[in-house]
Design brief:
With about 120 residues, the protein is mainly alpha-helical. Helix content is about 75%, strand content about 0%. Helix 4 crosses helix 5. It starts with a helix and ends with a helix.
Length: about 120
Amino acid sequence: MRHVHRTFLIITGAAIAAALVLLYALVDPSSHLFPRCIVLTVTGYQCPGCGSQRAVHSLLSGNVTAAWHFNAMLVASIPLIILMLIAAWRKHHWPRLYNALNSLPAIVMWAMAVIAWTIFRNL
């Protein structure tokens, strides 16, 4: 029974992910269908995630230059995000990699990079 539940969750998660990829590939996030950034709306400053929806749309459309323009940190982070997903998936086989990527120094370094990116993009 537990195996059936896990399989159902995996299939459901994959279907939702595929639907989101299709949505972002086909619909321009500049449309009114997608939410606006509340931080930018209220303060006038860009948060670290500002432009991420448009960057994902651009990447799925094959326009890396536009994606970089919308959110360079997201585009630059994709290899690390993929590595972190693989490390989480294979954490029992590669515990040292998983532990290194999820260690306090790695988290602090990532947080500092996000803060620096936020400051840099608002100068």
